[in-house]
């Protein structure tokens, strides 16, 4: 299973006062994902792919194959993460993961959510205005999702949009229900579900914001940690003799078919905010918030917690034995390389950093 988070700061101008898609980044990322799928299509889908459909992308994606040469001398590459998660040399198709994409709200969702203070307590008298704010925020993030899906589809990526607020609710801002079977069914039929940061109904707060980061944590818990065997692959018969799949959850969660990747607009996690501190240093492997010198790691409008919010979610996964990786999707080829198991500069979030540092 691959869970790929495309940050709102990558897909949009998150500081913009008006919703603005960064189509340069979006088109490039779509090409990189398409290239990865094209190289592994026989391992992913129950239906046959039309290889001719990808021919129009050949001129765009040829350059990706040469990107490793640019990054080969990068001192912060993570061999351990990619060695653990590399699926390109896996000859058993049953072990090759399927993919879910989650994207952030960026300049589409955060401004209206902040303006209407979605997620904060309010009186019954304020509810009519809050409903308008909820609806405006939901409409905005759906607009971004439509743009993302259209570009991915143009690159022959079989995405299917799943409206987060239609399948998920929260209690005090934390997920308390999700119809995970809908996601599993699409995965089992060869689609790539795509969810996104959204506004949702909340048991305690009535309405709340749900971040893409919390969504990927929930998906990892339910598609990898707890119910990995429910997401079937092409040749399930090969697994009939495997009677002990639930005996070691940490090993299962970290097997070489699982990969959690967060793409953002910086090279990973730094000890200080790299956008405001020139002496900020990249942290190769993170296992605790105590590794940070400062917690002011976001400078734009973000109602979901910025980088610190991401780290907290991923540290929860790390405690369960599920590693994740934060990379810079502004760097050409990083998405393709990390999906393909190649070396990429970034930060590994793991509960075993001492064992995984070079």
Provide a descriptive summary of the structure in words.
The chain is α/β, with parallel strands linked by helices. The chain has a single domain (2-46, 78-234, 248-356), classed as Carbamate kinase (3-Layer(aba) Sandwich). It has 14 helices and 12 strands. The strands form 3 sheets. An 8-stranded mixed β-sheet has the order 3-6-2-1-9-11-12-10, sandwiched between helices. The protein has a two-stranded antiparallel sheet with strand order 4-5. The radius of gyration is 20 Å and the shape is globular. Mean pLDDT is 78; it is low at 43-80, 83-97, 229-255 and 297-304.
What labels describe this entry?
358 residues, alpha/beta, Carbamate kinase, eight-stranded mixed sheet, two-stranded antiparallel ribbon, 12 strands, 37% helix, globular
Gist of the model:
With 358 residues, the protein is of the alpha/beta class.
Envelope shape? globular
Unreliable stretches (pLDDT < 50, length at least 5) are: 43-80, 83-97, 229-255, 297-304
- Return the domain count: 1
Spatial strand arrangement across the major sheet: 3-6-2-1-9-11-12-10
The CATH top-level class label? Alpha Beta
| Main sheet summary | 8 strands, mixed
Strand content: 15-25%
* Individual helix count: 14
Under the CATH scheme, which architecture would be assigned?
3-Layer(aba) Sandwich
Residue-averaged pLDDT = 78
Taking Cα atoms only, what radius of gyration do you get, to the nearest Å? 20 Å
Structural class of the helices, strands and pairings? alpha/beta
């Amino acid at each position: 299973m691959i869970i790929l988070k495309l940050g709102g700061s990558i897909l949009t101008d998150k500081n913009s006062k008006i919703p603005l898609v960064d189509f340069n980044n979006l088109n490039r990322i779509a090409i990189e994902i398409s290239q990865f799928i094209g190289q592994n299509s026989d391992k992913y889908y129950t239906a046959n792919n039309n290889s001719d459909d990808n021919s129009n992308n050949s001129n765009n994606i040829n350059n990706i194959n040469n990107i490793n040469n640019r990054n080969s001398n990068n001192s912060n590459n993570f061999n351990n993460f990619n060695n653990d998660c590399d699926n390109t040399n896996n000859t058993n198709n049953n072990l090759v993961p399927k993919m879910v994409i989650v994207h952030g709200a960026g300049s589409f969702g955060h401004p209206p959510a902040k303006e209407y203070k979605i997620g904060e307590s309010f009186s019954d008298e304020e509810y009519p205005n809050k409903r308008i704010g909820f609806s405006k925020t939901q409409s905005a993030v759906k607009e971004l999702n439509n743009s993302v899906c259209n570009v991915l589809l143009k690159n022959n990526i079989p995405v299917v949009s799943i409206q987060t607020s239609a399948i998920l609710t929260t209690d005090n801002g934390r997920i308390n229900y999700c119809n995970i079977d809908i996601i599993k069914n699409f995965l089992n039929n060869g689609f790539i579900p795509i969810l996104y940061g959204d506004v949702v109904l909340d048991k305690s707060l009535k309405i709340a914001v749900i971040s893409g980061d919390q969504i990927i944590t929930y998906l990892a818990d339910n598609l990898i940690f707890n119910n990995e065997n429910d997401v079937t692959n092409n040749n399930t018969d090969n697994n009939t003799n495997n009677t002990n799949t639930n005996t070691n959850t940490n090993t299962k969660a970290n097997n070489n078919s699982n990969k959690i990747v967060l793409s953002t607009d910086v090279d990973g996690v730094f000890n200080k905010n790299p956008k405001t501190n020139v002496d900020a240093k990249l942290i190769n492997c993170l296992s605790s918030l105590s590794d940070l010198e400062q917690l002011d790691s976001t400078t734009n409008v973000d109602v979901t917690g910025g980088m610190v919010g991401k780290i907290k979610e991923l540290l929860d996964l790390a405690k369960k034995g599920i590693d994740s990786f934060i990379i810079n999707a502004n760097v050409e080829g990083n998405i393709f390389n990390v999906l393909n198991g190649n070396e990429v500069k970034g930060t590994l979030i793991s509960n075993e950093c001492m064992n995984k540092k070079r």
